[in-house]
Amino acid sequence: MYIEQSDWRVNASCREQDPDGLFVRGKEQRKAKVVCIACPVRTECLAEALDNRIEFGVWGGMTERERRALLRRRPDVTSWLELLQSARRDHSDEDEDVRVG
């Protein structure tokens, strides 16, 4: 399912949570990340944080430290949204091949 970038926030699992719960430090971040696990717009959320270099909070299931490390490993990426959506499509295609095969 493709969700337009401008619409993704309305489908976020965290939309009815206290926003301060996503901007925590240390081991509290693990609790914040749990909200993201089954979020239908996790990819779009993570791409938003990566593409816009958002420094604080848990976005798309990743902490600021994890996002910084990812950005350092992949400085060549110009659009995280495109990359992540492409990876999701490829993964869906692989799942479909396994079910059919």
UniProtKB/TrEMBL annotation:
Record's protein name: Transcriptional regulator WhiB
Residues holding [4Fe-4S] cluster: C14, C36, C39, C45
Organism: Actinophytocola xanthii
InterPro entries, A to Z: 4FE4S_WBL, Whib
Annotated cofactor note: Binds 1 [4Fe-4S] cluster per subunit. Following nitrosylation of the [4Fe-4S] cluster binds 1 [4Fe-8(NO)] cluster per subunit.
Subcellular location: Cytoplasm
Record keywords, A-Z: 4Fe-4S, Cytoplasm, Disulfide bond, DNA-binding, Iron, Iron-sulfur, Metal-binding, Transcription, Transcription regulation
Main location: cytoplasm
Entry similarity comment: Belongs to the WhiB family.
Purpose of the protein: Acts as a transcriptional regulator. Probably redox-responsive. The apo- but not holo-form probably binds DNA.
Cofactor(s) needed for function: [4Fe-4S] cluster
One GO MF term attached to the UniProt entry: 4 iron, 4 sulfur cluster binding
Every 4Fe-4S Wbl-type domain range: 13-69
